[in-house]
Amino acid sequence: MPKVKISYLDRLRGYVREYGSDVFSTDGQILFCKIYEVKVAADKKFTITQHKSRDKHKQGLQRKITDETTDVEGRYVANVIVGTLEVDTPGKVFLLNSDVLEKANHSTIAKLFDKSLLILWPTGIKHDMVLLFLSDAAPYMVKAGQSLSSLYSKMIHVTCLAHDLNRVSEEIRGQFSEVDQFISNAKKIFLKAPSRVDTFKTMAPGIPLPPQPIVTRWGTWLTAALYYCEHFPIIQAIINQFDKEDAILICKMSKITK
Q1: In a domain, 2, yes or no
Q2: Residue 195 placed within a domain
Q3: What is the Cα gyration radius of the chain?
Q4: Does residue 249 share a domain with residue 184?
Q5: Is pTM beyond 0.70 here?
Q6: Dihedrals φ, ψ of 135, to 5°?
Q7: pLDDT tens-digit profile of 3-26?
Q8: First-to-last CA distance in the chain?
């Protein structure tokens, strides 16, 4: 069969489909590269392949994740993770920088942001390649994102949904103080107490041991609350089996569960 000639318009659309609409676009007349923001010659596929081999296409566009925590000495330590934004596949991520901050506020975070990108690009920050800033939803992080947006015009600041859910969990915890006491004390009852653990396993063989929530780990308190909600009758029965004079904690728990 004779080879069917493809129209120029179909060829342009084919390149957009092949490489992705986030890389190329067309108005039917030209092929436009969204990454370099230039027109690309589309007469031969070789020129497209050659253009795709350029640095920005190889490296991908950058996303940046910043998080702050405290170490064992109580110092503010900020961790900066960077990665590439890829089409239809997870990008590569790696820890770029960890730095001790004098204090955690929007100003120190913004300075750390620039300092870290200079590690990535020591000859000069490529502002247009930074597209995403991911952080928690702390007010100073939101303010840092707003101030950085003036320098990184293509960057979108996204706050972590997990942090928002944790804040909801913290509000619930604050509203139900007796539930919070119950969860905290129940964890301690079975901690380093083999005989109580044996009693638990005998009376509730199909139920896992109570979780040990840590308030600084997002979601663990809420997970524990759901656990006790599901298994409260049997947990109450197990606690009532223990000698109330054996420990003040057991006496407290017996009063809470009544």
Answers
A1: no
A2: yes
A3: 28
A4: yes
A5: no
A6: -150, 180
A7: 556 777 788 888 877 777 667 778
A8: 86
Tokens of 49: 């392949």
Angle between helices 220-241 and 177-189 (to 10 degrees): 70
What is the domain count for the chain? 3
Residue 218 structural domain: 166-257
Domain boundary among 120, 142, 159: 159
CB count, 10 Å around CB of 134?
18
Mean pLDDT of each 10-residue bin along the chain, 258 residues long: 66 79 75 74 78 57 61 78 83 87 88 91 90 87 91 90 79 85 83 86 90 78 89 88 75 75
Read off the pLDDT of residues 221-255 as tens digits, 9 standing for 90 and up. Answer: 888 889 999 998 998 888 888 877 667 777 777 77
% of the chain at pLDDT higher than 90: 15
What is the spatial distance between Cα 106 and Cα 87, in angstroms, rounded to a whole number? 32
CA 40 to chain centre: 36
